[in-house]
Amino acid sequence: MSAVSVPHDVHNIGFRSFPSSLLMLPLLRRLGLPLPSTAHDRALALDDDAETAEPLLDSPISRPGHRRGTRMFPVVRVLVLVSATVLLGLLAALLLLPHRPGPRVVDRSSASFVAAARESIAYLRDRQSSTLTQASARYRLRSGRPPPQNYDKWFTFAQERGCLIDEYDQIRRDFQPFYQLAEEDPGFFQRMIDSATKMNNDKKDLGRYDIRNGGVGEAPGTSNAYSYYWLETLGKFSHILPDLTVVINARDQPRVVFDVRQPGPYIRQRARKLTENDPFNVSPERTQTYFAGKPGCTILRSPDGFPDIANDDSA
Question: Which parts of the chain register pLDDT below 50?
Fold first, then answer.
C-alpha cells in the first residue's frame, strides 16, 4: 500500500460543512489517525494554539434550533394526524349523508308552465282520500268535528263525479264564525230563518227553499229572478240533505256586512242581536270609511273566525 501524505495539522482541519465532514471521518479512520475528541457535546478538537473551541460539525443538525425542531416533531405529527382524521370524517359525511339537490333550473318556456300545472293537478287528485274511512279521518283531523249527517252518501256522490274529497279548508275557514255563534247561541240561526220566512212579497230578492224528504220546493211569496236555477241546482243533491230551510240572497251585494276579525267580545254580542227594524235590507253604501278606526296593532290568537286578543299574554 502506497504511503499517503497527510498534513501534520490534520487535527486542525475545520469541518465547516456537513457533507465534507462525513467524507473526512472515514479517511481519518483509514489512516489510523485519532478522531477529534467528543468530550464536549458535538465539539471539534481544539487546535494547539486555539483559545476557543469550534463545533465538530457546524451543520443544521448540530445547531440548537435543530434540537428544538426535533423536540417539536411529535406535536407536528399529532397536528397532521388530527387534520387527516377531520378530512376523513368530512369525506365520510359527504358520502353517507343523503344528497340534497341544488337549485332547480326553471324553464321559462310556456310548455314548461303547462307541464308544471298538469303535474300539480295530478298530484292534487292523487292525494285525495280513496276510502270512506280515510275521508272521515281526514275530515276530523282538519275540522276538529265529526263528519256531517249522510257523509257516506256525500262521499259516494263526490267519487262518482270525480270531485275533490278533502280540499275544503277555505270553506271551513269561511264558516268558522258561524260555528262559533252556534256554540254560544244554539238557537241563533233558527231565529234568523224564522225572520226571513216571514218576509213574503217584500221584493228584497231573498229566496227561501224548503227541503223535505229529499225533495226541494220554494216557499210562497219568495220568487226571485234565479228561483228556477236554485231549484234545479238544489234538486241534484237534495236526496242527501236532511229536512231544512235554505235562505239564499239573490242580489249581487251582500246582505250582511260584518267585520268578524274585529277583536273583543263586543263584536260577538253584536252579531247575536238582531237590532235592525228591517233586517236583511243592506243597501250599497260608500266603503271608504268602513275600516277607518280599526285597530292595526292587535295580536290575534287564531287566524279564523271571531278572534281573541293575545296582546296581554305573557311570554
Answer: 1-20, 22, 38-58, 60-61
Show me where the domains of the chain are located: 1-79, 112-167
φ, ψ of residue 170 to 5 degrees: the values are -65, -40
How many Å from the N-terminal Cα to the C-terminal Cα in the chain?
104
Query: How many angstroms separate the CA atoms of 176 and 142, rounded?
Result: 12
| Residues 114-152 pLDDT 10s | 888 999 999 999 999 999 999 999 999 998 899 999 999
pTM score: 0.53
Q: What is the pLDDT of residue 184?
A: 87
DSSP 105-132: PPP-SHHHHHHHHHHHHHHHHHTS--SH
